[in-house]
Design goal:
This protein is α+β, with helices and mostly antiparallel strands. Helix content is 43%, strand content 23%. It has 10 helices and 9 strands.
Length: 350
């Protein structure tokens, strides 16, 4: 039986080993781990059904807060041919506010196929692989071929080096001694090359400058208080919306005695809206009232000068309570707001 070193000297065995090594490096390591195929800039129509349903729910909620019909139609149309089926599912969702949904339906009624929101549109045909898919396959094949070539060249070099050492009869100690300074020089060179990179390493980046800054004030008597703002990038691209509105009044009579506000942040790249329920001192200490308002958002007691942070996938809003005055009357102390001023400073998440 031939020994393993003799088998390796066979060029066919060397080529086979090079192929196996290249395949191992090219597919699992490079193709699946180092550079896997990733989806970017997907449209809402390409999301999973539960995510598309969440997107439609957020669209309905956003319209009920902003009353921007053009924006609502644009978002509804982005769901594609499955929008009617999703609307039907949303109508059957017990957690969806029927008043908000009823206000939304007339805006997009002409975009709904015959049969209403409960119609089930035919399944769209599976698209054929486009140029982007073919390019990815070609790139993967090129990477595999290059890896195979490098693996074969490495094995050939090792085989050639072994053959030269065996033909010389022995390995000279002087060669090892001569190689030591070279390795030392290489190590020194690597250290020297690394020093400028380390020295040039940037200091921790400062927090990103705010994209937008909004200030809104509620004064008792404004029973329809609802303030919303559009968030745009420096280039003018629409990124999302934020705003404040009345969440819960207390007592009876006019004007309303507001005991809680909803502060919200909507991100066009996120399927959820970050919402906080800003409560009066009285509302926050009343457990039954706090539990009743909890499903609307994260409960938080309002206090003058305090601030809190709301975050979505790509946006961050720092909300500061700049002014807070409680009203006086027959209701419990600190139970409703007479005046409330908020500053919303929105920045992108780096």
């Amino acid at each position: 039986m031939e020994s393993i070193p003799k088998r390796i000297r066979n060029p066919w065995v060397t080529a086979a080993l090079g192929f196996l090594v290249g395949l191992l490096i090219g597919l699992p390591l490079l193709g699946w781990w180092a550079w896997p195929i990733q989806w970017t800039d997907a449209t809402p129509a390409q999301l999973r059904e539960d995510y598309r349903l969440d997107y439609l729910r957020m669209t309905v909620i956003s319209y009920s807060l902003t009353r921007d019909g053009n924006l609502a139609r644009e978002r509804f149309a982005a769901l594609g041919s499955g929008s009617a089926e999703l609307l039907g599912l949303l109508q059957q969702d017990p957690t969806m506010d029927p008043q908000r949904l009823s206000a939304f339906l007339p805006v997009v009624s002409d975009l709904i196929p015959t049969g209403g929101g409960k119609a089930t549109p035919p399944a769209a045909p599976t698209p054929a692989p486009g140029p982007a898919g073919r390019s990815a396959v070609v790139l993967l094949l090129v990477v595999c071929l290059v890896t195979l070539a490098l693996g074969g060249a490495l094995l050939f070099f090792l085989r050639l080096r072994r053959s030269r050492k065996e033909s010389s009869g022995l390995e000279s100690p002087n060669q090892d001694e001569a190689a030591a300074p070279i390795e030392s020089a290489n190590a020194s060179g690597a250290t020297a090359a690394a020093l400028p990179i380390h020295a040039a390493a940037p200091s921790p980046a400062a927090s990103a400058a705010p994209l937008e800054r909004f200030v809104t004030t509620y004064v008792q008597g404004d029973d329809l208080y609802e303030d919303s703002f559009t968030i745009n990038s420096p280039a003018g691209e629409f990124l999302g919306e934020c705003g404040v509105g009345i969440s819960e009044p207390i007592g009876v009579g006019e004007p309303k005695k507001v005991t809680a506000f909803e502060v919200w942040l909507f991100d066009k790249r996120d399927t959820r809206t970050s919402t906080y329920v800003l409560m009066s001192e009285y509302a926050f200490t009343k457990e039954d009232l706090r539990l009743r308002l909890a499903p609307r958002g994260t409960p938080l007691q309002a206090s003058s000068g305090s601030e809190f942070l709301m975050e979505t996938q790509t946006l961050r809003a720092r909300v500061q309570i700049r002014e807070l005055q409680y009203g006086r009357g027959p209701l419990p102390a600190n139970s409703f707001f007479e005046r409330l001023t908020l500053q919303l400073e929105v920045s992108s998440r780096g």
